[in-house]
Amino acid sequence: MGFIQFLIDPVTFIARWLQMLLAGWGVPAGWTQFILFVLGAGALGTGALMFTIALIWFERKLIGRFQDRFGPNRVGPWGIFQPFADMGKIFTKEYITPDGADPVPFYLAPILVVMSVVSLWAVIPFTLTVVGVELNVGVLYIIGIGGIGELAIIFAGWGSNNKYAMLAAFRALAQLISYEVPMVIALLVPVMFAGKMGLNDIARAQDIWYIVLCPLAALIFFITSTAENGRTPFDLLEADSELVAGFNIEYSGLRFGFYYVADFLHAFTIGLLFAILFLGGWRGPFVEQVPVLGVFYLFAKAGIVYFIGNWMRASLPRFRIDQMMDINWKILTPTALVLVMLTAVVDKLIASELLYLQAAVLFVLNVVLLVVIGKVIDWYWAHRPRPKVVATPRPVARYERSSAQSHPGAGQ
Amino acid sequence: MTIMQIIFLITASVTLFAALMVVSTRKMMHAAMWLILVLFGVTITFALLETRFFAIVQLVIYIGAIAILIIFAVMLTRRSMNADVPQVNRNWWLVMVSSLALFVGLVTVMSVWEGFFVTARTAPPGGENLVQLGTALVDPNGFVLPFEVASLVLLAAMVGAIYVAAERKEK
Amino acid sequence: MIPLSWFLTFSAALFCIGLFGVLARKNAVAILMGLELMLNAVNINLLAFWCYLYGKDLSALVFVAIVFVAAAAETAVGLALIISAYRARNTAVADELNLLKG
Fold first, then answer.
1. Are A143 and B64 a contacting pair at CB < 8 A?
2. Neighbouring chains of C at 3+ CB pairs within 8 Å?
3. B17 at the C interface (CB within 8 A)?
4. Per-residue confidence (pLDDT) for residue A221, from 0 to 100
5. Counted domains in chain B
6. What is the rounded CA–CA span in Å between residue A132 and residue A395?
7. Nearest residue in chain B measured CA to CA from A30
8. Window B:146-165, CB contacts with C under 8 Å
């Protein structure tokens, strides 16, 4: 009986057992709760970071296949020990602190960057019963934690005492702050449907997946969170051809590894958040009876989103900075504003008892809005202001002249 | 001594130390970083006061927006002051004495009030009721007027800030 | 449990440190930082009173929300003014902005 209980819901089982054990030892209730929280946070953080090792291998293999390569294939079967080899390398590298670096922000930035990602896992409901903190303002928390990531980037840029790092930090900050605006507005839509801001409440409220009710909001959330992560096509913050290597150029060894880990873990965390907000989270068949199934459903859905993100990363080139700003301020933000207004009106007009009618109307509205925006962009693209051609382009080197003259400057 | 009291004491001492560093350190960038530590401390204090919403709002608005604005301003005006000279007025001791006097006065006045040592809480334990707060903010019998005025103030401030700070191109 | 007095003493101390910063510092950005400290102290005070004495009343929460708005507006305008003054006079020291002095 006890074993079956354990299999159905392991984490709650262990938590109860620990609680009883500590109570048996005569620990006061407040301390018991505190110890459980600390243990839970430690387990969650360690689990997330261990999971990253698998992610790094998976992503490198995947990108390799997208680019018609094998990916890592030397260390162990299918190269699965490659991340461990990388870890060994990164642990043993020298730590270099640049001249004139401001030590406190320089050392603090990598820690903050990892913290800003791992903290997100605190509010993620892995299944009906397993959630770090049942926070009633979970959606707001996600946005607030994003601010810590911005802080880390500015610290890294400032602390490194390097003008390229500083430039990249400014660029990264401009991108992150701008893309927060449509993200917040798009997140209002699922909050409006659920009537709650807690992530578990939103997952619980999804009798129909919200991606059906508001595909456009899901799309905006996906694009903006990719930009928040700074991955292709929004990887301007580490555009190696323009900015050397971005704000983390001066970091070496494990400190650089922190940025690496944060980047990979953030990509999957976005998948998790997307799955919870728009794909029903842990919901699936038999999840009410056997809560542990929810973890598999959630990770499967998150994996699909993660795969699409990688697909995008492998296929698209990088945007220019003006294009990046245009996409945000001229397309995503107005779309999100219109979408929120339309959704609010429909949500009020059609009673929520007529769930399927509401869903159908919202879906049609979203598609119509998407088509209209596509037309507007097409129209703008056809009528865009173009620079006037003031002279015919003149090639710098001419083949026929250079073949006639052996020395290029001699004929002038 | 319960766990909450220990958390509060640690938070409060770190926050007050960081606040002292904000007003006394000579490098402006370091002052801004200490300010961020103060804001984190205040976030934890809000959480201890059972208001999860305002704790997170503090994180979003102060750390995500205001702290970054201040860091930008510090970077932009970096060359205006030498960090080696004292950063305070001639009359700083006068200010210190009057601040201390204000603190002592405030605590003395409050300590004779009978509500000062209350320990029972009246707030709902799971955090404030957000639905009630949101409804009250747009309720004509509630706080719709202050809410709208506040949003107008914010809009005017943003427009004004952009107008003031924008670089004008001389023709 | 934590008594109300701890929160009030803490916020009073934070307020007085902020006041010192506002009155004593020379740099205008530092003065703004002192103002932020004072506003945070005010918010702690309001929420402490809400939590201990007026848990059913929403006006404290509305007040805190409006303090947040005022703080955001004040910082935006203040920093815009400082940057504008820095551009015109090449200084961010409050004492040296004395163009209006007779």
1. yes
2. B
3. no
4. 93
5. 2
6. 63
7. B3
8. 146-147, 150-151, 153-154, 156-158, 160-162, 164-165
DSSP calls for chain B: --HHHHHHHHHHHHHHHHHHHHHH-S-HHHHHHHHHHHHHHHHHHHHHTT-HHHHHHHIIIIIIIIHHHHHHHHHHTGGGS-TTS--B-TTHHHHHHHHHHHHHHHHHHHHTSGGGG-----S-TT---HHHHHHHHT-TTTTHHHHHHHHHHHHHHHHHHHHHHSPPPP-
**Complete domains list, chain C, with CATH:** 4-93 (1.10.287.3510)
First CA to last CA across chain A, in angstroms? 96
Q: HSE on the CB side for B94, CA within 13 Å?
A: 4
Domain housing B96: 3-128
**pLDDT tens digits for range A176-220:** 888 989 999 999 999 988 888 888 888 888 888 888 888 899 999
Instruction: Let me know whether B110 and B159 are in one domain.
Output: no
Across the B/C interface, how many CB contacts are shorter than 8 Å?
A: 256
Residue numbers of chain C with a pLDDT score lower than 70: 102
Phi, psi dihedrals of residue A178, rounded to the nearest 5°: -65, -45
Q: How many CB pairs under 8 A join A and B?
A: 65
Q: Which two tokens stand for residue A372?
A: 């209209």
Q: Which B residues 73-112 touch C at CB under 8 Å?
A: 73-74, 76-77, 80-81, 87-89, 91-92, 95-96, 98-100, 102-103, 106-107, 110-111
For residue C1, the chain B residues in CB contact (below 8 A) are 2, 4-5, 119-121
The number of residues making up chain C comes to 102
Please tell me which residue, A266 or B116, carries the higher pLDDT value.
A266
pTM metric for this prediction: 0.87
Range of the domain at A147: 93-381
Residue A411: pLDDT band with limits 50, 70, 90: very low
Same domain, A7 and A136: no
A96-110 exposure pattern, b = at least 16 Cβ within 10 A, e = fewer: ebeeebbeebbebbb
Amino acid type, A247: F
Q: Is the ipTM of this complex over 0.85?
A: yes
Domain boundary at A85, A110, A144, which?
Answer: A85
Average pLDDT of the residues in A126-141: 84
Residue among C1, C10, C76 minimizing CB distance to B157: C76
Which tokens is C101 given?
């002095």
Say whether A255 sits in a helix, a strand or coil. helix
B65: which chain A residues are within 8 Å (Cβ-Cβ)? 147
pLDDT in tens, B116-170: 888 888 877 777 788 888 888 888 888 899 999 999 999 999 999 988 888 776 6
Q: Does the pLDDT value for residue A74 go beyond 80? A: yes
- Residues composing chain A: 412
What residues have CB less than 8 Å from A404, skipping those under 6 apart?
Answer: none
Q: What CATH number corresponds to the domain at position B74?
A: 1.20.120.1200
Residues B137 and B118 in one domain: no
* CB pair distance less than 8 Å for B63 and A137: no
pLDDT digits (tens, 9 = 90+) for C41-56: 999 999 999 888 887 8
If DSSP codes are grouped into helix, strand and coil, which group holds residue A292? Answer: coil
CB contact under 8 Å between B30 and A158, yes or no, is: no
Q: Identify all chain B residues contacting A136, using CB atoms and an 8 Å cutoff.
A: 52-53, 126-127, 130
